[in-house]
Amino acid sequence: MERLEMQRIEKEKWNQLEAKDLERRNEELEELRLLEGCFPEAEKLKQETRLLSQWEHYLQCDGSPDPSVAQEMNTFISLWKEKTNETFEEVIEKSKVVLNLIEKLKFILLEISPCDLQDKDIIQYKGSILQLQELLHLKFNVATEILLRQATTLADLDSGNMEKIIKDENVTLYVWANLKKNPRYRSVRFSETQIGFEIPRILATSDIALRLLHTHYDHVSTLHLVSTPSKEDTSSVTESVKDDVDNVKKTISKEAEEKSKQQEKGSHLIQEEEIKVEEEQGDIEVKMSSAEEESEAIKCELEMKVLSETILAAQLLLVENLSEKPEFFEDNMVDLCQFTTLGGIYHLDILELPPQCKRVKGWMIVEIRKEGLQKYTYPPETTEDLETENAFPPIEVTLEVHENVIFFEDPMVARWDAEGKHWRTDGISNVFYKPKERLVTFSLETFGPLTLIQDAHINMPYQSWELRPLDVNKVLLTVTTVFTEIQIQIKENLCMLSSIKLRDKKHVSILEGKWMTPIPFIIALKEAGLNIFPTRYSHFYVIINNKVPLVEVKAYRQMALLSSAFAFGWSKWNLLCNSTKVVFKVREHLTEECTETPNWAILMFSGDRAQRLKITEDSEAFSEALKEETEFHSTLYHMLKDCASKEAMEKVRSSNCQFVNSVCHMLLSTRLLSYS
């Protein structure tokens, strides 16, 4: 009986708390809506920044086109196509402008919400990117041919063969021309490097050149992505988002119509008053101007409402899991949803040596072939030799791994299949990696573009995470994985890699200390091998603690709002609650001094209800029992307001909108609550 009485009392308390929560729900949600006005405000600042950068570009008049204007891009591409006889150094210099344009176009596609981009613009931007990439590679080929025509004049005095290395921040060229055709000279090593080849006798006695063009960027994999059926999935998701926003716009336009009708009635009454009482003309004009001001305010409010809904829809896209994989992959094909290319592309080619320049009576004469630079087919497509394997053995290749890339496991080598437009791992054998020297050696059957690949999800799921304030509008996000601990600082609209620890040892990265806006920063981390950013396909390759998208988004938005005064952290109990709820640690944090035993509270949030749990991180079992003397709230903000200091809440209310938006974007991109 006593037990039943206790249960009755507990249930009664619970019902009272629920009733109290329901009573103040609308008031709390309205206050949260006002606080979340920082998201559309930050988006408006972004739009203004984009317009300002366009204006600044126009004022510069430096000859570079505006990448968003099709006419300017077409003119730029046409003029560069017409330019001939450029040296490799000249092409490298021009490539800096081209790569900058490609980067800008990619950022436009990533930064602008899918709802705000028209299909024709997306097609135009992607088309411009593809044209620039193809033209750049063509220019490198033509410049290589011009360089090889001078092979005899550039020949090494000792070996009699030509060797040339041209290095730049984005491209490195290694060229070796076989001028002597000495059958004993079968080991090619570029001076002051370990890069080289072991070539068979047939190549050692042929008029060939070996070219290794190492581009520190990847313009090859995008050819696969363009042809992937996943584009259909993406477009369908985008369309659904556009439909949601359109529905909101229709609802809002109806409200606007009703309000404008009321204003028209008011203006008619004012006009009647004008006719009746001419003496009060001045007062009526004041009324008219105030009505216009009110109309403008209503219009602005409705615009912000549409923008808020658009932003929420775009944020939901970031945490969405697609129901099907993009396509079926055969054996030896590289699934680019599971793996990622790192360190750029190694364009490895055997080339036919072009006719050489000859000096005749003070003139330099050279035969120029219409077909241009020709590849030497190895092994030949048809051969009468019965012992083909012995005559055309695989070629041993040694490559240097890019210094700014981190491999947590031995890299895999993949070759590009131009016909199928995908990466493959067959035709490559005897792969050996020396991590200290950063050298990878392997045997290759056929030449073409090569790359090094790593599992894109090697650092997922995360082992733990923490988000804590550092200063006014500045936080530190720490993500700990099996292999590494990554620390990211966020301030205003910028992010910076603060430090990396590999197996408890500090690792120095070129990215450390460089402040970037969130999207370029995320791309830079991925390209460095520090991928802690799941995609919509990642749940197929990682065991995750999946949460309902809307709950996840609401949690990240409110955590970002509170991040200037509160620290948040990983809780083991998040694994044990269901997909409609998230659990994490939280504590007030106003100073940088970290206590040895921080007083963490355990919070559970379902998107529309926040509650503090009785359990601690050291409790033996999970329970949803409420902490004594605490209540339910509709938001995290009001939940923490109950126990927070005035200083903390003042800090939250005065947070910079761009800072809150950047923290939210990083939380949405890392998906800490689902991937820990």
From TrEMBL:
Residues 2-184 form the IC97/Casc1 N-terminal domain. Pfam families: Casc1_C, Casc1_N. Transmembrane segments: none annotated. One of its GO terms (molecular function) is beta-tubulin binding. GO terms for cellular component: axoneme. Residues 421-588 form the CASC1 C-terminal domain. It comes from the Eukaryota. Belongs to the DNAI7 family. This is Dynein axonemal intermediate chain 7.
